[in-house]
Amino acid sequence: MLSDEGVRHNRNNQRIEGGEDMENSKTRLLEKLASGEAHVAVIGLGYVGLPLAVVFAESGYRVTGIDLDERKVNAINCGSSYIDDVSQRSVQDLVCQHKLSATSDFSVIAQCDAVSICVPTPLRKTGDPDISYIVSVTEQLAKYLLPGMVVVLESTTYPGTTLEIVLPLLSKSAHRLKVGENFFLAFSPERVDPGRTDWTTRTTPKVIGGITPDCLEVAKAYYGRAIDTLVPVSSTEAAEMVKLLENTFRAVNIGLVNEVLLMCDRLGLDVWEVIDAAASKPFGFMKFTPGPGLGGHCIPIDPLYLSWKLRTLNYTARFIELASEVNTSMPRYWAQKVQDALNEAGKPLKSSNILVLGVAYKKEVGDVRESPALDIIHDLAQKGAVVQYHDPHVATLSHDGVEMSGVSDLPAALCEADCVVIVTDHSVYDWEEIRKSSPLLVDTRRALAQALPQPNPGPEQPQEPAIQD
Hints:
37% helix, elongated, Rossmann fold, alpha/beta, 8-stranded mixed beta sheet, 4-stranded parallel beta sheet
């Protein structure tokens, strides 16, 4: 903290002169991290921050979560979890053990040894990266930065953000503290896939890059206590690029298989037959599947961060932009398929009752961010259809200013619908019953095939659903 005279003090309220030798900052911090005595702050308590805070606390650290949403703060302090992947019992136990707490007051950082930043990085309406959350929390953090502190940015962003944005903001307010000597800065991209149980925050390998070698060493000690496998890279820019490559790879391959769907539609071929047969090859092919479009917090957004960064360097990321064009067109394609199906049944789309099954961006979650279901609903409603939805994980939703509530009586809604559109294939659905009860079906996910015996075309291959994030 700062006294009235502007003299900096450490966590023990000992006076720190600007020119004092801080060469032991690293040693003291490493000792606290190794012993588990470190006090950790996690800024941003969403789908990334809360699971991270929990695994840190379970590893022995004392963790304080920071979020401006008082509902999240109150929930955690009451021992309640609002994230599907974090059990209520885990939060309750850690709160009772005084290992986990939450606050909206950034001044708690002055008591901490390590800080992880897990805030959103959306796109602006212009398609440019919005790093305002990163800037805002870094400015707050800088007020309380002390010698012997490690800061790790986890928010997905373009290469250069940690070095060019975060470091100058911290250094400007750091009162002569020097990165790599008095404080330590790194980037470690989040790799959360909501709904998964095979790979968790603890078991998913963690990429880490530091501003300096000492920064990397400290960051590895910080995360190494809580994460099973660490993957060090040479710089923060490399670590930032790793995350963008991961999701660009998926976006481009999803764009490819979605375009294959469009091709097969024109050629009169069954795209699923083609994909399944191709997946029988035991090498040189990874199975991706088409769907209604991209959804979630990463795949629709992250590649555009990279595309934007490259435009500043006079380079066009053609694969990214083409894949984005194909993927964003898929909701319109499926809305047209609904209209075509109704036409074949002798009904107009206008005034028809359409029931959308599943509005979450992927199965088994309640997250609707960037969900293609929202665009499908919007397109159908614009064409005059009366649209309702059912989703066991999403009670209400808001899209383009329209508030909707899910139907409560699914069997009745199926019978009353003129057409049922399957968008998110939650496992709770009884596909055979849906098939029997629905007068007309449009299946964007090949979910109905789950109700039928499937031949085995060959060795099973890894599958990447088009809507997975």
